[in-house]
Design goal:
There is one protein chain. Helix content is about 40%, strand content about 5%. By secondary structure, it is mainly alpha-helical. The protein has a five-stranded parallel β-sheet, with helices on both faces. Helix 3 (about 30-50) packs across helix 6 (about 95-105), helix 5 (about 70-90) runs antiparallel to helix 8 (about 135-150) and helix 6 crosses helix 7 (about 125-135). The longest helix has 24 residues, at about 465-490. The model is unreliable at about 1-25 (pLDDT under 50).
Length: about 575
């Protein structure tokens, strides 16, 4: 997601979020992401107006007032130029969020495309409603130009801020920590690809000190691997690393994946007019700086609980590794990137992983691309899907690269793709958070709107077209088979590699049998990603599969109690 962009305050709020995360550029017709963002904003403003018995303009003003301070002033500035247009439409009693966004110029209908609408069309159509409010086209054009002139980004508001934003944008495009003084690919801050994604660096002044390395001189004087264990036992004269960490193998964990691996999450409270308050957005700066991901709560690298996803807690492969052996503290990397698929993984993303084959501990690596090789927003979505032969070639190339980086004794687990039919089958009769107030907007209606704008995260699965959903799942199954075939034939010098299914349907069935709801496993806002419940359940599944595939690889450290007694939380995170 670019930090410098027109309309950026708006995108950062709505974040558009279930589209901006990496898929938005596929088609983008009829206003695309700007149209979707505007429609969401005005939908919430209209519902706010009904809840508080006021006008839509006042509802939009109320919405501005609950935004974080950074976005409040630009929102109010936009409101000042949009108000005349909205008031005119309201006066003629032809307002719908779709009409409002067409009148403001964020939505339009390109030649040869269908008119896109999220809400029921007015009696005379969207264009007819605008003509009724603006019989003189010149007046409408003047108002639209005023709105267009306001579309400046947050990064343009203050002197010197633009350069800083451009620096952040450039860093984030490399998927590396923004703050990393010594260049070892580990950071000391949480966000901007920092410690929420990778273990915290304990010295940002030395590039030979970082999580996951083997200790320098037993860490007698300084903690060189950042696991919080250092110093010398006065009785034996041995270093604590030698005493406590040499009896069992030490492992780190890495996930090379997509937005599901990074745990893409948009809070439901941001998209529901019911109960929206200022506190709903307290975590907005962190979420946005994390690219709308919660890797610190994810299935592979999660390490903390959070009220952001209450009442569900966090479990992860990393926590299981740390529980088994506290010497593994902080040795995790989440190389999950929104929109990642096999091509981008092979071309750029895999190279951001930090590991030295000669100085570092072995890794447990998860390669998990569960959907983007069949998901895109193209009107001809089938043409944009990866072919099995390309999947084989790219995955093989990634494994070849890993063999040059991973220390001997590492393990790789590759997952298949998900069967995304679970999305429509689970949510087809459910109300989307945008429809909470009136109980009038279903997931299929949201899917159709995004498909019309060609900004859907997955036109092949998020659709009412059952034939297309089945075809997309068939292609996903073929790609999974391609990955599985590579794992059976590939021979590496430094690791073994195995395949497991990404069987979210099986996990959903078990969850329902235990008394849960099927919809609990899907993120409610985007209707696409695995939820916190899914991440929690997949952590257990991944850990069990890793122990089945690599029996005896992760024995319990008999010195865990001693480590906790002497070093406590080992410096935390």
């Amino acid at each position: 997601m670019g930090v410098v962009s027109s309309f950026s305050w708006w995108r950062c709020y709505v974040v558009l979020v279930f589209i901006i995360y990496g898929q938005s550029a596929h088609g983008n017709v009829n206003g695309g992401t700007d149209c979707a963002a505007c429609t969401i904003i005005l939908s919430l403003a209209e519902q706010n107006a009904e809840i508080h018995n006021e006008t839509v303009v006042h509802g939009l003003e109320r919405l501005c007032n609950v935004l974080p301070v950074l976005y409040r002033e630009p929102c109010q500035g936009f409101l000042s130029v949009a108000t005349p247009v909205l008031q005119r439409i309201l006066f003629e009693d032809v307002f719908t969020p779709d009409v409002g966004c067409h009148a403001l110029g964020f939505c339009y209908t390109e030649a040869g495309t269908a008119e896109c609408n999220l809400h029921p069309r007015p009696r005379h159509g969207i264009r007819g409603a605008i003509k009724r409010a603006y019989p003189d086209p010149m007046t409408w054009n003047i108002h639209q130009q005023k709105v267009a002139n306001f579309q400046s980004g947050v990064c343009d508001l203050l002197p010197g801020l633009k350069g800083f934003c451009q620096l952040i944008e450039q860093k984030l495009e490399t998927h590396l920590p923004v703050v990393d003084v010594d260049g070892d690919r580990f950071s000391t801050i949480q966000t901007l690809r920092g410690t929420n994604f990778r273990g915290r660096d304990c010295s940002d002044a030395r590039d030979d000190i970082y999580p996951g390395r083997r200790p320098i001189d037993g860490d007698r004087i300084q903690d060189s691997n950042c696991n919080g264990i250092y110093g010398t036992d006065k009785i034996s004269g041995k270093s604590y690393e030698e005493l406590f960490c040499s009896d069992v193998p030490n492992y780190g964990v890495v996930v090379l994946g997509d937005s599901a691996a990074a745990h893409f999450h948009l809070p439901k409270e941001w998209f529901s007019a019911v109960g929206m308050t200022l506190s709903s957005f307290e975590a907005a700066p962190m979420i946005i700086a994390n690219e709308i991901d919660l890797p610190q709560l994810s299935a592979v690298t999660g390490y903390k609980n959070s009220s952001l996803v209450r009442p569900w807690w966090t479990d992860s492969v990393y926590l299981r590794l740390r529980e088994t052996n506290r010497c593994n503290h902080r040795d995790y990397q989440n190389i999950g990137v929104n929109g990642a698929e096999s091509a981008s993984m092979n071309n750029t993303i895999q190279y951001t992983m930090a590991r030295n084959r000669t100085t570092d501990n072995p890794l447990l690596v998860f390669y998990s691309l569960i959907g983007n090789d069949v998901c895109n927003g193209h009107v001809d979505t089938i043409h944009g899907m990866t072919l099995p032969e390309d999947m084989k070639r790219r995955f093989t190339s990634t494994l070849e690269y890993l063999d040059t980086k991973l220390p001997k004794g590492s393990h790789v687990v590759a997952t298949g793709l998900a069967d995304g039919r679970i999305l429509y089958n689970t949510l087809k009769d459910k109300i989307h958070p945008l429809g909470d107030w009136r109980q009038d907007l279903t997931y299929p209606e949201v899917y159709s709107f995004l498909n019309c704008l060609q900004v859907s995260p997955c036109a092949g699965w998020m659709t009412t077209n059952g034939t297309l959903r089945n075809f997309t799942s068939e292609r996903a199954a073929n790609l999974s088979l391609a990955v599985k075939q590579v794992t059976k034939s590939f021979r590496a010098k430094n690791f073994d590699v195995h395949y497991i299914d990404y069987d979210i349907k099986k996990i959903q069935n078990q969850w329902v049998a235990d008394g849960g709801k099927a919809s609990d496993l899907i993120e409610p806002v985007d209707g696409f990603h695995p939820s916190q419940v899914s991440n929690f359940l997949f952590a257990s599944y991944f850990w069990k599969e890793a122990n089945r595939l690599f029996p005896g690889a992760f024995p319990r450290n008999p010195h865990n109690a001693d480590i906790e007694r002497i070093f406590g939380d080992q410096g935390g995170y």
